[in-house]
């Protein structure tokens, strides 16, 4: 289980997260819903270790993540899909998938790549294409596949549905649902409650860096 308790973050001298507490459980999809600027991206970046924490606690299966830099968190099984995808255009899809795994020295990367391709055959079909040649929707699926390469325990997805066609959004939902049986905890930042409410077991609403009412999803 991922557990944030009273997490506080300031950026450029301004308090951005003002006591965020939430939990995300293995085999479940958890939504973090809020308007633009509410603090969703900052929450995900804080969990990944890309933003320093000023206060509060951050644990994965009881382990304190705070002392660990981002690459150590990735090696622990945390995958992050940023909103802007950050694929490397001149590299092929497969190279994009393998690069972070090489960078953190992920053991069993070829086996994990096969597993990702089985889950997402549409990404396997693009393996030899250069990332820059893909549509925005295809790039999103590749960015999800890349996060899945090392996201064996926890996946952090920033607005994964944004810009997808209805058909692709449906497919993304199917893929996320299929991860339940793998016991992966999935935390999805989303600005549109309706897009996530049918998928998520649990939904948190964030406003101005504060969690509002933690409640059950699926309404
Ligand atoms: N490096 C920074 N320095 C100062 N303020 C920042 C910095 N990064 C983000 N902020 C501010 O922090 C607040 C939260 O931003 P954040 O990106 O976490 O929101 P968000 O909910 O993900 O919204 P969006 O969907 O627009 O990204 C915003 O007011 C933003 O302007």
TrEMBL record:
Record InterPro entries: AAA+_ATPase (IPR003593), ABC_transporter-like_ATP-bd (IPR003439), ABC_transporter-like_CS (IPR017871), BCAA_Transport_ATP-bd_LivF (IPR052156), P-loop_NTPase (IPR027417)
Gene Ontology MF terms: ATP binding; ATP hydrolysis activity; branched-chain amino acid transmembrane transporter activity
Pfam families xrefs: ABC_tran
UniProt record, GO biological process: L-amino acid transport
Domain of life assignment: Bacteria
PROSITE patterns: ABC_TRANSPORTER_1, ABC_TRANSPORTER_2
Record domain ABC transporter: where: 2-219
CDD domains the record matches: ABC_TM1139_LivF_branched (cd03224)
Keywords on record: Amino-acid transport, ATP-binding, Nucleotide-binding, Transport
Similarity field: Belongs to the ABC transporter superfamily.
Listed PANTHER family: HIGH-AFFINITY BRANCHED-CHAIN AMINO ACID TRANSPORT ATP-BINDING PROTEIN LIVF
Protein name in UniProt: Branched-chain amino acid transport system ATP-binding protein
Species of provenance: Thermoflexus hugenholtzii JAD2
Lineage: Bacteria, Bacillati, Chloroflexota, Thermoflexia, Thermoflexales
């Amino acid at each position: 289980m991922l557990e944030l308790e009273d997490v506080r973050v300031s950026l450029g001298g301004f308090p951005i997260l003002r006591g965020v507490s939430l939990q995300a459980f293995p085999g479940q999809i958890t939504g973090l819903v809020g308007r633009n600027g509410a603090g969703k991206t900052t929450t995900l970046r804080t969990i990944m270790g890309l933003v320093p924490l000023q206060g509060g606690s951050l644990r994965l299966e009881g382990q304190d993540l705070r002392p660990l830099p981002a690459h150590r968190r990735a090696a622990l099984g945390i995958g992050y899909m940023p909103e802007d995808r950050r694929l490397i255009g001149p590299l092929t899809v497969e190279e994009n998938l393998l690069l972070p795994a090489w960078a953190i020295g992920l053991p069993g990367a070829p086996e994990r790549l096969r597993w990702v391709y089985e889950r997402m055959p549409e990404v396997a079909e693009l393996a030899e294409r250069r990332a820059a040649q893909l549509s925005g929707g295809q790039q999103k699926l590749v960015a999800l596949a890349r996060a899945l390469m090392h996201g064996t325990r926890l996946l952090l997805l920033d607005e994964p549905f944004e810009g997808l066609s209805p058909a692709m959004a449906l497919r993304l939902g199917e893929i996320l649902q299929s991860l339940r049986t793998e016991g992966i905890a999935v935390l999805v930042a989303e600005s549109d409650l309706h897009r996530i409410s049918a998928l998520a077991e649990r939904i948190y609403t964030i406003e101005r860096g504060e969690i509002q009412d933690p409640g059950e999803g699926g309404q």
